[in-house]
Amino acid sequence: MTSIQFYEKYAPLLHMDKGDYKTFALTGGRGSMKTGHACRAVLIHLMRAKKRAVAFREIMRSIQESLYAEFVALIESEFKGMGFSYDKQRIYHKNGSVLFFNGLKDQNANSRERLKGMAGVDLCIIDEAQSVSRACFDALLPTLRKEGVILIVIYNRVEAHLPVEEALFLDYDTFSAPPGTYFVEVNYPEIAHLGLISQQFIRRAELVKQHRPDEYARDYLNKPRGGSLNKVVKYFSPEHIDDHITYVPELPIHLSMDFNVDPMMWVCAHKTRDKLFVFDEIVLENATTADAAEEFVRRYGTHRATVVLNGDASGDYRKTQSHYSDYAIVRNVLCRAGLRVEIDIRRKNPPIQMRVNAFNRLIRGEDGQKRFFVHPRCRWVIENLKQLRYKEGGGAFDLPSFQQIKMDREAKFMGHIFDAVSYVAEYYWPVV
């Protein structure tokens, strides 16, 4: 095993087998290296004796949405030749230890019931624990009844009140925790001088500090402040609304689409190398894809340049109600009107947060520049950029329920048009 640098505040993780602590709560902003230290400690723990361990995240639709890649990278570098092996689902050690991966999605009583199968594990590590609901913690914690079982939670304080802190009785204000719990906070400025993080990361953090101070406080210093922190679009302002934006027949129209029957919400935009200009929106209730395509033709049927179709990648699959994909339907309607059509979409949709990050970079880049503008006629684009928020303590959008829509019809217009405009942002300006 190569030499491992371990920051002193994380050192108790190296002695989990001594039993001084049964719970380790690690919090901190980006660059705190809390996840990397926890993964190294878990591998060392698995080497010492035969153990059964599980790594959780709130949602794990595939092994890629877990800590699997982080563990494999360590096994192929710092822990190479130390007896570890892995397949597509689990990690093993020659002494019989095994590490597997699971999701903690709080969907229903049955999904929480499955957590009872965790009763036989020796160690649980929960990454991104800020997203885990109190119901999931209430289902999981009683299953950890085996003597000596260890729990490690890793989280960012995206909100001042989080289920993970409530469930584990962590008091952040006084930084106190129950006996047997090691509660520590690390942020990148205190380890920057140790050479554990790159200068590139530090330079980027300083740019965010300069241009997005509230985001810097939350993401890098672990200190949520201000009412805008749970907003999906952080820095949208009146300066992004420009009534001088015009439709230009000689420029390609980027028609970005979210396929939803009620409402169907599309955006029409022009783009340059580094900017996006939304000049119109198509919003129809109880509409089919063909209805929306016909509405586009009604407005822009004499367009002289190409129409580029962007949007939801799932719209390229055949639907049960049609012999054609949604994109084929749109293309056929537009081509019959004499329009030239191209399709630029992903093979599959990226994670939502990738779209959010790409769009927020257009709103305000690390250099402070604005690269997204919208005409004031686009009512629902503007409303979504102003109002769309995350659910408290999680990464999902706070969208209206069926009952809320019944009480307020306009509530249903929240979310879908942001999807449409963020698809085109992520396609042309992805955050790598």
Q: Per the principal axes of the C-alpha atoms, what is the gross shape?
A: elongated
Number of domains: 3
How many individual helices? 13
- Looking at the overall shape, the CATH architecture of the largest domain is 2-Layer Sandwich
Provide key terms for this protein.
6-stranded mixed beta sheet, alpha/beta, 8-stranded mixed beta sheet, Rossmann fold, elongated, 14 strands, 28% helix, 432 residues, Nucleotidyltransferase, domain 5
Put the structure in a nutshell:
With 432 residues, the protein is α/β, with parallel strands linked by helices. The chain has helices at 34-48, 68-75, 109-113, 134-140, 163-167, 199-211, 213-219, 289-300, 326-336, 352-363, 379-387, 402-407, 416-428, and strands at 23-27, 52-57, 84-86, 91-93, 98-103, 123-126, 150-155, 181-185, 253-258, 264-271, 276-284, 307-311, 341-343, 372-374.
What does this structure look like?
The chain is α/β, with parallel strands linked by helices. The two termini are about 30 Å apart. It has helices spanning about 35-50, 70-75, 110-115, 135-140, 165, 200-210, 215-220, 290-300, 325-335, 350-365, 380-385, 400-405, 415-430, and strands at about 25, 50-55, 85, 90-95, 100-105, 125, 150-155, 180-185, 255-260, 265-270, 275-285, 305-310, 340-345, 370-375. A hairpin with a 5-residue loop joins strand 9 and strand 10 (about 265-270). It folds into three domains: about 15-185, Rossmann fold; about 195-225, no CATH class; about 240-430, Nucleotidyltransferase, domain 5, CATH 3.30.420.
